Amino acid sequence: MNKHLNKYILIGCISLIAGGCSIPKHTVMPERVAVPVSADTISLNHIAAIFQDEKLRALIDTALKNNYDLLAASQRVSIAQANLMQAKNAWLPTLNVALTAGVDKYADYTLNGVGNFDTNLSPNISKDQRIPGPTPEYFAGLRSSWEIDLWGKLKGKRQAAYSRFLSSMEGRRLLTTQIVAGVAGLYYELIALDNEATIIERNIQLQEAALATVRIQKEAGRATELAVQQFNAQLLSTKALAYGVKQEVALLENQLNVILGRFPQPVSRTSFKDLGAIPELTSKGIPVQLLLNRPDIHQAELELSATKADVKAARASFFPALSITPYAGFNAFKAGLLFQSPASIAWGVAGNLVAPVFNQKQLKAQYNITNANAYTAFYNYQQSIINGYQEVATAVNKLENQQQTYLLKSEEVRILQEAISTANILFTTGYANYLEIITAQKSALEAELALVTTKRGTYQGLVSLYRALGGS
Which keywords, in A-to-Z order, does the entry hold (predicted)? Predict the structure, then answer.
């Protein structure tokens, strides 16, 4: 017996050694990219002020409450939380209440068959101890199983689940930032279109007055039918432009209502003239800490942490696993004797030390997959930092350039509006022809619309900066 036992122990030791021969080395990630550091940073003290418009705030609150993408993201957070709960409790032993019944017919030439036959012939057992054939078996009690986390496999899975739970929360925060920025961007687009409609309507009135004037002059012999046709054509073109703006307003209102999670309806908004002033940036430097706190960057960092933990758990799978399986309860081969204590009370415990031998290639493949995922997550993290830095730099430059452009465009509009008055006076006194009036009106209209576009771009640049900094 000892000879056979030693043989089994030797085989087990060889298996354990074989299982440990090809354990992968620890994964070492490359160096992280260094983010440029600036002595001066952007002041964000007044950026949040662009969202203080009461009507805009109401729209944002509606979107955060009703947006279906955001509601779905909340459910993804709940899923990640459930996975975390499952991973956190994986190291605890399982404990199950068991009630089992079965029957066996042992052959005459089996260990149990011979043993039962011989036992029934013994004068040392009572009537209740005689073993029937076929032999039933009843058990009522507790069974447990407990895997001892010797090498940190369960701990690695727990760490991965925790990182992914935090990552899901960052994903929801990222989506929240995008929704807020999307609502604000469309809101300012609609306000700008309202202003464009006002400008177009004012120019329609001016052009109608100019058309009426040239018709009077034609009747007086001071203008030709060609002049009337040119003025009328310009008026029709401007009226058509107004309908184009109306269509764009309807399109953007529908887009905004989708984000708000509601059916198409008018969107209440403030007027263009009541918009607050654009906050000034105190410097051009990019705040590194705020940049690294962007939800997408933080999410990529957490995913990197999760994949590292996956690698740790996959590496631990190469080591032997120790599990303990105890049980305790009532056990008998007759139902009527099952609960006759203490004679029917049974308990036991077994320990298993298992090392992988023939499934090394499967474990190696799984390890290679998790290792590749870790490197992928690392490169994604690096790329997200570079993308974030680029987005912030672009948003800062856009905001500054748009502000300077707006100042120049404002002066251009002022001059061209004065030019219309000058052209009208010169035309009345015979020093200018009708084409010069038409040109002046057209140039002024285009300049005013360009001014609106520039201011819209300024607000969009501010919204982009808000989004690029992670909604800080």
Answer: Lipoprotein, Membrane, Palmitate, Transmembrane, Transmembrane beta strand
